[in-house]
Write a structure and sequence with these properties.
This protein is an alpha+beta fold and 728 residues long. Among the domains are: 359 residues, no CATH class; 79 residues, no CATH class. Helices cover 47% and strands 19% of the residues. The protein has 19 helices and 22 strands. Strands 5, 6, 8, 9, 13 and 14 form a 6-stranded antiparallel sheet that branches. It has a 3-stranded antiparallel sheet with strand order 4-3-15. A hairpin with a 2-residue loop joins strand 10 and strand 11. Helix 4 packs across helix 6 and helix 12 runs antiparallel to helix 14. The chain is flat, with a radius of gyration of 51 Å. The chain starts with a helix and ends in a 14-residue tail after the last helix.
Length: 728
Amino acid sequence: MANESKSAKSNKKVVQETQDLWKTYSKKREVWATHAQEDKEFRLGKQWTADQKRTLEERGQAAIVVNRIHPAVEAAKALITANKPQFRVSPREDSDNQVAQAINGLLEYVWQVSEGNAVMRRVVDDYYVTGLGCALAYIDPMMDMGKGEVCIHDVDPLDVYIDPNSRHPHADDAANVIISRLYTKKQAQDLYPMYKKAIGNATSENFLTDRPTTAREDDGETSWPESSETMTIANFGDSDEYIRGYERYTPEMIDYYRVFEKPTSYEDLLNKEEYIEYLGQPAWVIDGNIIMEAEQAQGMIQQIEQGFQQQLQQGREQGNLELPQKPEIQQITFKELVAGGQIEVVTVPTKRIKQCVIMGDKLLYSRILPIDQYPIVFFMNQHTRTPYPMSDVRMVKSMQEYINKTRSLIIAHATTSTNTKILIPSGSVDMREFEQKWAQPGVAIEVDFDQGQPTPVMPTPLPNELYQNEITAKNDIDHQLGLYEMSQGNSAVAPHTYKATVALDEFGQRKIKSKLADIESGLNRLGQVVIPMMQQLYTTQKIVRLIQPNNSMSEYVVNKELYDDKTGEIKVINDITVGKYDVVVVTGSTMPTNRMAQLEMYMDAYEKGIIDKQEVLKKTEVFDMEGVMKRTDLIGQLQQQLKQATETMEQMQGDLQTREREVYHAKMKAEIEKTKSTLKETTSKAKMSGTLFEKRLDDALGQVKKEVAEAASSGSPSSRPKKKQSKK
């Protein structure tokens, strides 16, 4: 009972402290909240005060509203939220890149489940109108059949109360951030079904709304809940009792314990509850060796026991009565290992966010979130180094009022100028007859010209500057929101050349890209908050399927358990529960893309050989993208096969020509060899003939020599040749 009383007092203290903080924060932001409410009203056409309307009525003018703010906000919002953001997750330290890709897919899944595009449009709308957009990341335990899902939702900025002393654009230095709004008790019980009884017993409020009131009046056609008078609980009945809810977020330093196991080199960071459970885990000392895995220890103990029994049996069979030595086995706890220095423990004070949920005067629950940043992410427009930023609508309200006043004056002037005023001398006409017949065509009215002649009074024309100033004011509103005429589809101001149009479009987006930097900063912070929540919730196997823009299906499997046949261990593939990861949004990914300019860029890259046809095809808007891709791949394969066949044919043709040349050369070689053989034979015959001739010549010469010798030896005068006598 003492513990319950202490707990009740503690809960009551938290409730009272939260209510006091809310009152303080609410009072501090009262001026900003009033301006923000008026900005919202201006955006939706509630732009005249009661005093202004009364003044116009006295002048015979109507309170005309020509709302230039609404279309400007819609156009700017459409530019920034044209596409869903592309997140890029990268691992810190030595974490797995494949796991980072799985987390990236899971982050896209959370965006899809939360209808992130619609949430983003509402956040950006608040960003422009009130100066502050808010997105909340949380875990919904009721989704996915009770398994839970990480979700993202937008929050009305007027429901958010930030520590007035905060100076950081994401309120990192805020002591508290409170989300507070009014619920009916039924709404609260539906939102927290596990706490129906506590909510039913909570103290009710006597207010219908807590929105600040402004001096602006509606047009009589639009219903504004803020304009309703304060209503009490008695006017509604018990079923409609109102109750104020509080979600208070407070940073706290929580002791975490970093453990390092020397025997296994395992390291982990544990909270207090996990650390207490960790110290109670069993460990074994077997023959002087520390075993920290239960399965391994049981296996070793079983083997030791079997070995001991075998030795004991062998000793009995051999008659050895001595008992074999059994290894020492001792079971201890991790706590003893810590005391013995086998496990090193370092206490690490770590920042965490504490959440307290309160309904009325009842604390429903409080818990520590697995994040060190606020789960509510702020998108501040014109940051004033306070929690109260300026909005674009606030800066253009005076121009909108000028447009309304100008248009009212123009319409009043047009109304009066169509009804000509006439100065009638007294007694010159019958006034009753004149008023009845004046507007009738071809009518005759009797006039006494002696009394004077009726004289029409022409109205003074309005200066042309008045019309031009209205156009200028409209342009000023567009420029304040980062818009220009071509971005809104006005082709009259576009250049004649395509490239000049693209260049001008890129130049014109520079101002709105400064707004985009604020949005992307918030999206980066949102991703940083969502990832730790996913790591806490998604601890079992989960299959995520996503439809890509080209109608293809991407599948990611996280925390998949696989049995290793070799080691007998169960391994976890894509374990997202461990490791730290960074996340950023691809710059400009939410902006609209000029499809023609992008296609031209890709075609240029294709012509230069940087990318292939398939990559170009991905950037085109083809409905059956998957089918076209398959057919393109098939065509590419067939073309490759045809190329290979052509190359083979060309190679075979080359081989054929080579063979023909080889045959020709073989024939020529044979002819040459034949010629050489014939020539050799002829040469041989000629050589033999020459030898025979030489022999015959030698024989004849020998015969002559013989005859000469015989003649010389005989000395006969007759045998001498006679001298010829010369004639005188």
